[in-house]
């Protein structure tokens, strides 16, 4: 992680490091300018949840790990921001699941897809789809954001997406897929359309997901099925909203200056 010129003592050190990582990735043609703006929307919600992984994200991560381990054809979808912020963790996750990674870009150019593939391979990825082989289409999504690999997202039963667009999430659900979304905004269409929504920063959610997959990997299928049966995404999303609302109420009551949750950094 780079930290050029940012003193560690800065109260927003981690947030500044992430911004710098994204800008660096933009310089390398991995992130588009729109991705930088999307990150800003995420940062706002990260403030609201106290910049820490909360119970609703932990519960969703557990269900996500179970769904990925039970899947016939899980796929880990990677876009520019995900590559910039969590490439290494996503590669480890795919490895643990024996699943392919698929480069899937909203603002797609072949050049950017190839750059992301190169980054993933440099971190040890073995199967990277969606670059040379994005020959299939998600029905109902006009070119080129609907391009997918026939071996990957097209035939997947479970797809993990991060910082995804609501339209595409909806289209994947219409295809009958289980969609796991990592999205800091519990109000986004993606968060509401996904089957399992992890309301957390991708930089915290991916390592926790890797750890949880590792933990659950040896458990019997019955136990994983039980985790999924007991999971309720509406309850988790409602929990995220209630958490934010109660936290704001409390801060308004007790004074913002007293906020004990104003931690700054990946937990
Ligand atoms: P939708 O189309 O789903 O309603 P949107 O238009 O807000 O949502 P986009 O702009 O397509 O979504 O994508 C950005 C989304 O990713 C936002 O919901 C934002 O909160 C979320 N996001 C941004 N940065 C992060 C991050 N670091 N970790 C997790 N989520 C993030
Ligand atoms: Mg959108």
TrEMBL record:
GO terms for molecular function: acid-amino acid ligase activity; ATP binding. InterPro entries: PPS/PS, PPS/PS_sf. Keywords: ATP-binding, Coenzyme A biosynthesis, Ligase, Nucleotide-binding. Pfam families: PPS_PS (PF02006). It comes from the Archaea. Its EC number is 6.3.2.36. ATP binds at residues 19, 41, 183-185, 189-190, 201-202. GO terms for biological process: coenzyme A biosynthetic process. It is an enzyme of class 6 (ligase). Pathway: Cofactor biosynthesis; coenzyme A biosynthesis. It catalyses: (R)-4-phosphopantoate + beta-alanine + ATP = (R)-4'-phosphopantothenate + AMP + diphosphate + H(+). The keyword ATP-binding applies. Catalyzes the condensation of (R)-4-phosphopantoate and beta-alanine to 4'-phosphopantothenate in the CoA biosynthesis pathway. NCBIfam families: phpantohe_syn_Arch, PRK13761.1. Belongs to the archaeal phosphopantothenate synthetase family. HAMAP family: PPS. Homodimer. This is 4-phosphopantoate--beta-alanine ligase. It comes from Pyrodictium delaneyi. The lineage of its organism: Archaea, Thermoproteota, Thermoprotei, Desulfurococcales, Pyrodictiaceae.
């Amino acid at each position: 992680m780079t930290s050029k010129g940012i003193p560690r003592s800065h109260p927003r050190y981690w947030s500044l490091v992430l911004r710098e990582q994204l800008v660096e990735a933009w310089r390398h043609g991995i992130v588009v300018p729109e991705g930088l703006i999307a990150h800003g929307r995420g940062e706002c919600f990260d403030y609201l949840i106290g910049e820490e992984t909360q119970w609703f994200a932990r519960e969703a991560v557990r269900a996500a790990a179970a769904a990925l381990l039970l899947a016939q054809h899980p796929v880990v979808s990677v876009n520019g921001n995900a590559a910039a912020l969590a490439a290494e963790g996503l590669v480890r996750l795919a490895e643990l699941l024996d699943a392919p990674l698929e480069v899937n870009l909203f603002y797609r150019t072949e050049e950017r897809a190839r750059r992301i593939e190169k980054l993933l391979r440099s971190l040890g990825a073995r199967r990277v789809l969606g670059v040379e082989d994005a020959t299939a289409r998600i029905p109902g999504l006009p070119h080129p954001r609907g391009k997918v690999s026939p071996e990957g997202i097209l035939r997947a039963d479970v797809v993990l997406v991060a910082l995804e667009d609501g339209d595409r999430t909806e289209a994947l659900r219409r295809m009958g897929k289980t969609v796991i979304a990592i999205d800091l905004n519990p109000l986004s269409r993606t968060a509401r359309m996904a089957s399992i929504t992890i309301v957390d920063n991708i930089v915290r959610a991916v390592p926790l997901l890797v750890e949880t997959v590792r933990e659950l990997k040896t458990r019997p299928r019955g136990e994983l099925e039980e985790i999924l049966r007991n999971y309720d995404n509406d309850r988790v999303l409602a929990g995220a909203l209630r958490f934010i609302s109660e936290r704001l109420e409390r801060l308004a009551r007790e004074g913002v200056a007293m906020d004990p949750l104003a931690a700054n950094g990946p937990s």
